[in-house]
What we know:
The protein has helices at about 10-20, 60, 70-75, 80, 90-100. With about 100 residues, the chain is mainly alpha-helical.
Amino acid sequence: xxxxxxxxxxxxxxxxxxxxxxxxxxxxxxxxxxxxxxxxxxxxxxxxxxxxxxxxxxxxxxxxxxxxxxxxxxxxxxxxxxxxxxxxxxxxxxxxxxxxx
Length: 101
């Protein structure tokens, strides 16, 4: 079973980790540019492979995953469970950001 987010996470530590690790590939501002990874604004509730203007792998487009807390944590823990091929993200860095204490 997938791990759930730890309650009482450290927002300051998580923001620093995102800035150092994740922001190299992702932006989070509304209307922000895509980088190596897609812009993450409005991520929750979005179907994987559907951010306008980003070039996803065909596996990502066909996955049918709708992003939410349950799918995000399970994905970051084991990306190939949800999207069999074409993963380009440095998953462990992002998983660390999500799980920071």
